[in-house]
Amino acid sequence: MKIELRGGKPGEAAQFAVDVLVVPAFAYVQKDAKPGAKGEGAPRSRVAAKKSAAKASPKAAAPWAPNPTLDALDATLGGAISAQAAREEFSGKANSALSVSTLGRAPARTILVVGLGAPGETPKTAAVRAFAARGARVANAERARSLAIVAPSDDAATVRALAEGLPLGAYRFTTHLTGDRIPKARVDVATIFVAKVAADLREALRVGHAVAEAVCLTRDLVSEPPNVLDAPELARRAQRVAKAGGLSIKVFDKAEIKRRKMHLLLAVNQGSTTEPRFVHMTYAPKAKRGAPKPKRVVVVGKGLTFDSGGLCIKPADGMLDMKIDMGGAANVVGLMAAVAAVQPNVEVHGIFASTDNMPDGNAYRPGDIWPSLDGKTVEIINTDAEGRLVLADALAYARVLQPDVMIDNATLTGACMVALGTNCSGYYSNREELVAPFEAACKSAGEQMWRMPLLEDLKDQLKSDNADLKHMGARWGGSITAALFLREFIGDTAWIHCDIAGPVTTDKPSGFYVKGATGHGVLSFLAFIEQLGAK
């Protein structure tokens, strides 16, 4: 998708010939309310709204705050938009939408009006991103080739959010479709209307588009079937990202993994005929004379390209979607692509350990005791709890880098999905000072993550009679004991653990997510890193 900026007077977008025109709408405000957003669709008083609506549409009073583009379109269509809004009780509230086919009476083929809620200050980044994504999804449904969207305000943050939301909403994984299954049309060009095109808006557009493409890369990786994307292929794709973004990268093959004594990763890999890979990507900001040393963040991902459960084999239904068990590693690759585009003043390391987990005569077994890179010995309880094992070696490797913050993310436990559902990740942290900035980053990204407790009394479940640790505890509190196990391998590092098992995919679109792989986590981690770099 090509995205371009176009400047013009208020309402000019109404004359733009395009397949789908997306227009923001705010609800009414009372006469004593404060002025709101400065851009297109900015709210005014209820009285002013009624007067403007009466001029534009004698047939029905428009239920939105005055909006030059929307009012002009409504007038061109003889009040058809306000009449349809009245029938559908559309009032501009958040997450509401109104779609109107112009039937050739306006330059745009379809007009999509999207509510941004109660008027006030400039809409939040997450709301703007979701607004753009909704417009792109409608464009797909309309088989549109062109799309235009009116910016609700003219600042750089809004333009970046729009440039992120458009590709994310238009995303479809079509790599393996042939013949009639290939979509008949796609949005080739998207235009963002602002009052005036300026250099900062062009840069915001560039960054936003690149970030969206990075999230779409993560979605591609999660969507690929396991016969295509095994551990060596995942490493190769990380290498392509590193080359394109000017990142440094190290890839360890099985011999190097063995030499470095990453025994837990090797244990999980024992039943596979495919070699494992361990990948370390690095972004280093340009040194600035006299500036303090930048913070260092390490993001670690679980890269199970397919999880059969090993000897503790999953039932067939439980195995079908296990290509997604490398979602944490996919997030790392997508995040590093985004970091390369944004270039924050933070040193960022992306690390993942990758293998599949297969049953075989040589597969690791319940009751085995394995050493770890950290030095602790681990008793295996269930071979279907393999993710924490590969993460343990990855965390032990990562902590040697002495990061200011270490984040790991993994499709780790079904227990977290039982606790929080499928649209929210659980996160854990051993530092109170990380909680507020991390939650602020998640809110800015529009991604749900809920803090979970590291309950110390559950740690006893990891005691083993024969080794330093069991690698899992009882069924109850399973997400918590998994986090407590990982904590054993981080030393004194400031740490956040994200259990993303639920939102890694979704069965219906919402926000900036489409059906299928979501890329959940990439925008939150990026926002956190950008916050850290801005301090």
Question: Which terms summarize this structure?
Answer:
535 residues, 6-stranded mixed beta sheet, 35% helix, 19 strands, elongated, 20% strand, alpha/beta, 8-stranded mixed beta sheet, 16 helices
Any chance you could write out the topology, listing elements then pairs?
Elements: E1 2-7, E2 18-25, H1 46-56, H2 68-76, H3 80-87, E3 97-101, E4 108-115, H4 125-141, E5 146-150, H5 156-170, E6 189-194, H6 199-223, H7 231-245, E7 248-252, H8 254-259, H9 263-269, E8 277-283, E9 295-307, H10 316-319, H11 327-342, E10 346-357, E11 369-371, E12 377-379, H12 387-399, E13 405-410, H13 414-420, E14 425-429, H14 435-445, E15 449-451, E16 469-470, H15 478-487, E17 495-499, E18 505-506, E19 516-517, H16 522-534
Parallel strand pairs: 1-6, 2-4, 2-5, 5-6, 9-10, 9-13, 12-16, 13-17, 14-15
Antiparallel strand pairs: 3-4, 7-8, 8-10, 11-12, 14-17, 18-19
Helix pairs in contact: 1-2, 4-5, 5-6, 6-11, 7-11, 9-12, 11-16, 14-16
Q: Helix coverage percent of residues?
A: 25-40%
Order of neighbouring strands in the sheet with most strands: 7-8-10-9-13-17-14-15
Shape: elongated
Provide a count of the helices: 16
**Overall pLDDT level:** 93
Roughly what fraction of the amino acids lie in strands? 15-25%
What is the rounded distance between the termini?
Answer: 34 Å
Let me know the largest β-sheet.
8 strands, mixed
Parts with pLDDT < 50 across at least 5 consecutive residues:
43-59
Number of strand segments: 19
Question: What Rg do the Cα atoms give?
Answer: 25 Å
SS-based class? alpha/beta
Give the oligomeric state of the chains in this entry, treating copies of one chain as homo and distinct chains as hetero: single chain
